[in-house]
Amino acid sequence: MKLYMKRVFLFPGQGAQIVGMGKDIYENYESSRKIYNKVCEISGIDVKKLCFEGPEEELNKTQNTQIAIFTTSLAILEVIKENKINADIVAGLSLGEYVALVYSGIISFEDGIYLIKKRGYYMGNMLPKEEFAMAAIIGLNSEKIEEICTQISKSGKFIVPANYNCSVQTVISGESTAIEEASEKLKEAGAKRVIPLKTSGPFHTIKLEKAKEAYEKELENINFTKGNAKVIKNIDGTYYLRNR
Fold this sequence. Notes:
CATH class of the largest domain: Alpha Beta
Radius of gyration: 19 Å
Number of domains: 2
Helix content: 40-55%
């Protein structure tokens, strides 16, 4: 009996950016150059300069980070597809899910650019004025992380578990001072690592409610299709329904 193994692609989210990303791909593959050039043309953003030259401060701004990672992921995908490597199932971390949706065909390449540009803008510009941060907690169970976040919240600071990535990794999000306090307490509680993320907002929390409301209106204008590869949703780990 022939054993068939499914292939899964997982695309990165905000925080994975680094100045210089994608430059080698761009320089060596025409298909990747076309992706970068198309995104620059459609979005009106010099994505190539952001990715290849930075500076880091500009690349790390939410409205720039999101389109930069989105473009680089799609550019790398073109090379993979040229080599006839395809996925049966795709998923992405936060903004990475949009790469998955484009790959599957659930949304078009052009709509993906439009949505990511709008998403980055709203998330970067429709936030409260406080200083915020995020951190990944590795090697500590989520119940203990929730307990410590709740303790700190009682002092009036905003902090919550934002992403349950796996059984040994949870991301916390909130005010910078609360994240700093939690980081020390979580290390004392047995966390193997606490990694500050290169983000500038309290993402995946109620602090983005205004941004969410504005972005929902943009989604009303998008045509979603059945797609090809199965896409796993961030929110609950199930597949998007393919009923169109």
